[in-house]
């Protein structure tokens, strides 16, 4: 089983705007339950704010609590799923990269820290006042989306930009701005992550990526260390481990096939690598997930 990649037009209703979607969260879940009931990824950028409800949000095997005041951000390619113990409410919108960046030629989405790198936390917790203020802006977009006013698209994009600016200020409120990385380092890290996503199956050494970026391996390590306090090797290994977990949990391939798909010389090498990075073997992870699924089935089965 492959992880489904959802596209914006799968969510569109009669009231639509190309490459953009917004809805109240409760309506979004009700209308699209068949699409979002299982783990999936997107080909767009997503932002959601919660005003009610409790639950959990799993993003690339990390679990985060859902509660009022939480804001979540997702970049294309990230795998996620929702689980709620009480009815959620709030607003959700998503858009393509082009929808935003074609209107802001000098300001790209990676300028915002929550979209800058997969290494940055995909969530933010706001106090009541900021939640209320930002929710009103989401609501304004929602109303504009369902009307046919002049310059509708431009107003929506400007409102999105205003929301992103406010969220960036809150996201970086406790950061030392003097220590924020330079724009050139940000661009290198962004391009590195894209290269790793495209090539990690076959290319596992920093030199390949440094050559592609036309910089030395030493400088590449300096950039990664300065921006996210990791080494290039660690960044590559994390991407391999993430894909390993996705394949172990969401595909029907056996472990030997998965190690071959990831271009390891044999399963033994893959297993040692996996255990070194995660502290557990691939077999243990597979059994653990199987037990969780069985327990969930038994506890949710009707008498």
UniProtKB/TrEMBL annotation:
Pfam family, one: AraC_binding
Segments forming domain HTH araC/xylS-type: 190-288
Protein keywords: DNA-binding, Transcription, Transcription regulation
Top-level taxon in the UniProt lineage: Bacteria
Protein name: Helix-turn-helix domain-containing protein
